[in-house]
Amino acid sequence: MVHNEIREKFLKFFESRGHKLVPSSSLLPTDPSVLFTTAGMQQFKPYYTGQADAQEDFGSLNAVSIQKCIRTSAIGEVGDESHLTFFEMLGNFSFGGYWKKEAIEYAHEFITKELGLNIDYVSVFEGENGIPADTESEKIWKSIDPTLEVRRFGREDNFWGPTGEEGPCGPSTEVFVKGIKYEIWNIVFNEFYCSKDKKFTPLDIKGIDTGMGLERLTSAVQNKSNIFETDLFEPLMSLLPDLIDIRKKRVISDHLRAAVFLLTDGVLASNKEQGYILRRLLRRAMVYENQANLPPHIFEDIIAKIIEIYGNEYSELKAKKDEIMNSYHTESNKFMKALSSGIKELQKTTVIDSESAFKLYESYGLPFEVIKEVGAEKASSLTREGFEMERKRHQEISRAGAEKKFGGHGIVEGDLTAANKEEMWQKTRLHTATHIIVAALKKVLKQDLPQAGSDINAERLRFDFTFPRKLTDDELREAEKIANQIVEQDVVVTKTEMPYEDAIKSGAAGFFKLKYPPMVKVFTIGPDTGYFSREICGGPHVSRTAEIGRIKITKEESVSGGNRRIRAVIE
After folding, report:
1. Angle, CA of 237, 258 and 342, to the nearest 5°
2. What is the top-level taxon of the source organism (predicted)?
3. What is the pLDDT of residues 50-99, one digit of tens each?
């Protein structure tokens, strides 16, 4: 059974049982507490907490998805038989629709009957820190199969914490199949909300959150000893010559695959946040490419093969093939110039500690993993934690220098953060420009555009919205024209606080169907009667539109099924 057949079986199984198919969200989450989308449940968090209504949005209290995920904690372990940075998570979810019995029965039926796998044993939560043992799940498993072995484990193994700093969580039951040493399916029973201070309170809506990695499942179904022997990875691994050892082949395949998906979702290599992770992945692979003296076409062939393997499931990969290749070449050209000098300097260094490792990174772009590996014994005391502390220390020094130059201190206003007043002013202008572009698009497309996330830095704005097709060049030009007309008219931007119900009655647009507090802030662009834009927002904003400057839409692209993304700058 090839991987696409497994996908199809999973989705059809749950769709036939009343689950609404929800497309994968972007790898760049709307949740500001996490860097990437790390789990299938992440896009569904508002439905577990009651901030959004699944019945209203999906027409069902149950959903199924295959979610793109990135987990950076595993970068150092990639190269073994099971760890990955990018993976796809098969998941079924319920937001008050069904509970433990149905979730466990679905898992058992799918694994044993649909896939023909034999369950070795299952695990349940044994109880810990005032949270009782999950005897209910144990009884359900035994009622399905009295001969099944049920093992009990503590919070480290069978209690799933919140995605991010806070959120829904609860005990879990995990499924292990014969021939595979790691679990293939994790069923989480979200019945608590974990606050930032790690206090647990019962959720009003109990929910099911399951996760089953496609790569691990495929290795079990295809009876492979590890994930890199499956038809997801074997085509990539086979493009690499035998002179490269198996661990490096795995790293290259994993890192290039993750990089392709990050580039597709709009991440560009940099020294900050998501871009920093992308750069680490690409450059580690490029070091191995350099060490093996591989011709450039091999990595190009691997990238093309990745797009071929996943292009039918994620059409945006095919649409952005040239863009992906160009971004890859840009980073490769930049790095290769400094790589040989960096390796020579590394080899000359007697002892590599956090400080010397950061200098190698700062001067030559060598990633931590490469410094650690090439440095060997000289880098035996070097740790990721120490390296990151040194990197953050230098960031603080740079930030302090910027504040000294421009005045001010670290600033937080509403949902924006900035190192200094100048940066905050730039982000404020871009924030208001986002509202203007959204309103302009609504006028051009003659319909509402539900927003699905936004991100603003000092250089550009980016926002996602739900729309079924690519926008034409004429539509984008017309929206840009309307947006700049509003800027040139120098209309006033006013803020009003009012009850949420009054805000909606006044025509104010909300965001992602969240439940707002009783009193909200409403920003209106233009006169109260005949306004151009009116949205519920935490701010900050300019006071008049001429303060923004000229708006330029730089890109419109697909993010995931049904979602589009706009990027723009101000000049």
Report:
1. 85
2. Bacteria
3. 889 999 999 999 999 999 999 988 788 898 888 899 999 999 999 999 99
